[in-house]
Amino acid sequence: MRCLVPRPAGSYLPEPQGPGGAETGRERDLRKSSPSKLQAALGSGHCAAMELGPLEGGYLELLNSSADPLQLYHLYDQTDLAREELELCSEPDMDTINCEQFSKLLCDIEGDEETREAYANIAELDQYVFQDSQLDGLGKDIFIEHIGLEEMISENVEVLEEAGQKSQKRPFPEELPVDLKHRKLAEPVTVPMVTGTFLVGPVSDSSALPCLSPPAVFNKEPESNQRWLEETVLMPVPPSSSLLGCLSLPAGPIQIVPSLPSLPQGLWQISGPGTGVSSMVIYQGEMPQASQVLPSNGPAVQGLPKSPDRPGSTSPFAPSATDLPGMPEPALTSRANTTEDQMSPTQCLEAHEVSSKPPKWPESVEQFCRSLRDKYRAEPADPEGILVEVELVRARLERGGDKSQERGLATPDWAERQLARGGPAEVLLAAGDRRRPRETQVIAVLGKAGQGKSRWAREVSRAWACGQLPQYDFVFYFPCHCLDRAGDRYRLQDLLFCLGPQPQPADEVFSHVLRRPDRVLLILDAFEGLEGQDGLLHSAGGPVSTEPHSFRGLLAGLFQRKLLRGCTVLLTARPRGRLAQSLSKADVLFEVTGFSAEQAETYVTSYLERAGVPERRERALALLHGRPFLLSLSHSPTVCRAVCRLSEALLELGGEAELPSTLTGLYVGLLSPAARDSPPGALAGLARLAWELGRRHSGTLRDSQFPSAEVRAWAVAQGLVQPVPGAPDAELAFSSFLLQCFLGALWLALSTEIKDKELPQYLALTPRKKRPYDNWLEGVPRFLAGLLFQPHAHGLGALVGPAGAAVGARKQKALSRYLKRLQPGTLRAGRLLELLHCAHEAADAGLWQYVVQGLPARLSFLGTRLTPPNAYVLHSALEAAGRDFSLDLRSTGIDPAGLGSLVGLRCVTHFSPALVPGSEALSPQGFAE
Ligand SMILES: Nc1ncnc2c1ncn2[C@@H]1O[C@H](COP(=O)(O)OP(=O)(O)OP(=O)(O)O)[C@@H](O)[C@H]1O
């Protein structure tokens, strides 16, 4: 534990003064001690002391001097190690406790049952507040609120709330003692007794907090705009504003300082009379952040070295096992002297092998584990065998701006994204550090269809099979949509072993699994495919018995911590609708965000190498760059793979090759050869199946559902459907969700069962309550527009021949009437983007002109994600409109390339890409429905 960090002049760290200017005990002690004493103890060779030169006076003077804080820190650190005595007053001073006092305190409490329980409760409170999945500064306001300080929260917090980032309030854990629930920070709490670092002195003016404020409105002054872009978006990332806040207590502010990569822990600074301390800064653990560095005017803690401290809890409120020898279980997993971004999988393995090597297992258990590992190793994470390394991004949920107030994935600005560094082993290891002891931990990996969630989940099981996740003895992988069959019932052990090596293992293995649930990882892949999955995380009454239950019933038991309590559940899902709401129950949330342009190129290269034609790389890349829209769409790995397939086929043909310019064209290009070789009606039959299943939120098929065995065989041979990896009974599924959407749109375009006037209902442009279904097949609208509007020979005709021409023409007319009655200026941002995509896919000059001319001059995308393809169609539309626009691009997650392309447009005269709330330059307008 570190007790003191000197404050450099001009920093916002506390002045060495007690409340009301009075001197604290700590300050008295500091004054009494002489730095020259320290130097003597360290010896003349100590470089920090040498560089500091002769140190005169007491510590207070030293603190106020302009000496380099880094050196002071080392100096103090070494002193501590050299056991140089700092004479402290006899009464333990809450704000100035040192290592020795702390050890003494621990000895005193050892064996004291009540105290230990109190610590456990404090640890619970800490876990509740700090280890929350929404650990973005907002969990902290709940903490303040729950301990009775709502009225004291300063304006700064309101700013965050206004930005729609306020966390969902959760009930206070019932098991916490009443006095802890109602304790106010103002009371002299025992908080400082636990692990942490405390800085002493009052908090300086909160206005000194570093705050990144981009110009409210950008004008067309390329130089200043470019400068800002370079300093903020394109250069090292500033600390997240959402992590940086200042709460005012009546007598002074609490500053919440984001954690820094250079610090082992984050900081909390608490001050004010009545707190019993002049002020206090508490380190708090946090996930590593994307390239996070402080701006030059940042807090002085910037230069602090990593604590060479002994391993311990990352939280001041959660003593670790090393801190509290009497604790029954470690409060948190600790990793000696290592931060997550420093640890390679190999190191992880070594570290865990030492600490958690299981005792020798019975032969049956050993055998089962070996077989399970072999099974995972044998299953390719990807049928193409290509791996582009991508990093997950920390995610959180927030209420949408619409009236429904539904929660969805928050869209942070690009610079605010927090990357979860490393591969699955590192990410899970880091997430495990935030685990509540003896509690089931739910980790959710979210993302749009085709972004690589399943792939990541399969990599996890492979990583375990290769020994990279030694914290787990057992990893069970479940493709959820294949297990949730009506009538199927399982006992927990049936479920665990039904997909594993066969024959199923003996009861001995199951009882071994039950013995250490904390060493069990369950992977629930494609969780959104479960019917009614949204209720699972919240519903009551899950099973506790060993009776058979439905798959959903067993999952409810898991989530309610009634089954395998203490295990880790990793679920992957497309967060939509009510499921997104329920996910607030998850302890940690990540998002898979897809490929960057460079990663897409890497994929193309690997694909051609795997296909044995690496020499075609340059031509393939040239084809892709010739179609910038497809390049932007290759942000999705699924589309990137489709582009590679078509490029390969085109290059195979030789001659002048060119990729199509639309997504519809890409899929028509891929499917038309398959359609030519199909049994009669096979494509239409499969299209109907895609639509029917999609309406029921499903993409998996059983043999009996195919129109005929012939159609099944053709669909498998053409790669339109494929076995679900890891599923029982060779279950089949559409080879991608996007393909299912395309086939669903094809059915809508061809079917005479769907009346022309019903078609607009299937576009995502219509308000939800007027739609007959929920657009689960979210790619349908743009494919439908593409198939109906593109010249017959290049669209429908290429797939079904002249047969569909008449039906298609009628439907096109109906859709055209509808689209031309829409007023783009009245649509909310998400629907406006969908309309632009539909118009782009239609490739119809009249429709395109109608849409772009209807765009309002002031466009707000606040809180709406601008993915690379969204930015592309928006760019094309603004360019085509031929008049000036103002753009609000805040909280859109737009990447630097997209931002550059939009603000580089001559017609964009103003834009507001603020990274922090508060820029009111362009208020959202004009999107009311
Ligand atoms: N990092 C990657 N490297 C190489 N290929 C990838 C990567 N990520 C995804 N893919 C490929 O992209 C395709 C889609 O990936 P995956 O099925 O994992 O997506 P998903 O997010 O689970 O989609 P859905 O929500 O539809 O189930 C697969 O072919 C997968 O192998």
Automatic annotation (TrEMBL):
Region (Disordered): 1-35, 292-339
Keyword list, A-Z: Leucine-rich repeat, Repeat
Domain NACHT: 441-750
Gene3D superfamilies attached to this UniProt entry: P-loop containing nucleotide triphosphate hydrolases (3.40.50.300)
Annotated GO MF terms: ATP binding
Record-linked Pfam families: NACHT
One Gene Ontology biological process: positive regulation of MHC class II biosynthetic process
Signal peptide: none
Name the record gives this protein: MHC class II transactivator isoform X5
